[in-house]
Design brief:
The protein is globular, with a radius of gyration of 20 Å. The strands form 6 sheets. A 3-stranded antiparallel sheet has the order 1-9-8, covered by helices on one side. Strands 10-2-11 form a 3-stranded antiparallel sheet, with no helix packed on it. It has a 3-stranded antiparallel sheet with strand order 3-5-4. The protein has 8 helices and 15 strands. The protein is an alpha+beta fold and about 240 residues long. The protein has one domain. Helix content is about 35%, strand content about 20%. InterPro entries: SapC.
């Protein structure tokens, strides 16, 4: 269970972060949230799908690492076998918080004290004098990028819905052991609908900066075959 706290040098000076990638460190996840500004890098490695949160009636863009809960086909021992790590994964166990009742422009760095990454070994968050370490400076930069990207994703996802550009995905994955896995509950960009948009709608998407991430999400679907191949290799070799 998460245990979030405001990060301070006084309270957390001796904490270290294990930056190895492994299931024990919390990396055994099927997917991770991604934001429009990073979709160019994401599409080089992962399929990008969209999932609707029925409770809040909104979509989230996701980089897919596997086909079932707890499956990350990019994990190989203590190595993440991809050239790009999504920001929402790279910043863990840190996150951005907002003081209760404060202006929405105010940001704080929080830390999940329940994270298995924390301990007495690994990279320092703070130096012995309490100043931020080089590692933490890099994390703060990523946190800023993720926060800005999250704000941009609100308009991006709203535009996809406004132009009816998301369609449900129905995908059956044939596996090496003879079984078939069905991926359900996700959406993809409707390419036919995108092609049918009138010039005014295309111009609106372009001016808002939404066309590039749309194209990146479409291009990323070519990675589904590679993800299936990873799944089958895992089934064959364990």
């Amino acid at each position: 269970m998460p245990d979030h706290a405001i990060l301070t040098a006084d309270a957390h000076r001796d904490l270290r972060v294990n930056t190895e990638r492994s299931a024990a460190s919390g990396d055994a996840v099927m997917s991770a949230m991604v934001v429009p500004d990073e979709l160019r890098q994401v599409q080089n490695e992962y399929p990008i799908l969209f999932r609707r949160n029925l409770e809040h009636d909104r979509f989230t863009a996701l980089a897919m690492f596997g086909f079932e809960d707890g499956e990350n086909l990019f994990l190989e021992g203590t190595r993440w076998a991809a050239r790009y790590l999504p920001l929402s994964i790279a910043i863990q166990p840190f996150l951005i918080g907002r003081p209760e009742g404060a202006d929405t422009g105010v940001r704080q760095v929080h830390i999940d004290l329940a994270s298995p990454r924390l301990g007495s070994e690994g990279l320092r968050i703070f130096e012995e004098d309490g100043s931020p370490s080089p590692y933490f400076h890099a994390v703060v930069e990523k946190l800023g990028m993720l926060d800005a990207g999250y704000q941009a994703s609100i308009g991006f996802l709203a535009a996809l819905r406004r132009h009816d550009l998301l369609e449900p995905l129905s995908l059956e994955v044939p596996l090496a052991d003879g079984s078939t896995h069905r991926l359900v509950g996700f959406h993809v960009i409707d390419e036919e609908r995108l092609r049918a948009l009138d010039p005014a709608a295309v111009a609106e998407l372009h001016q808002a900066g939404h066309l590039m991430p749309i194209f990146m999400a479409l291009a990323s679907l070519a990675n589904i075959g590679a993800l299936v191949a990873r799944k089958n290799q895992r089934l064959r070799h364990g």
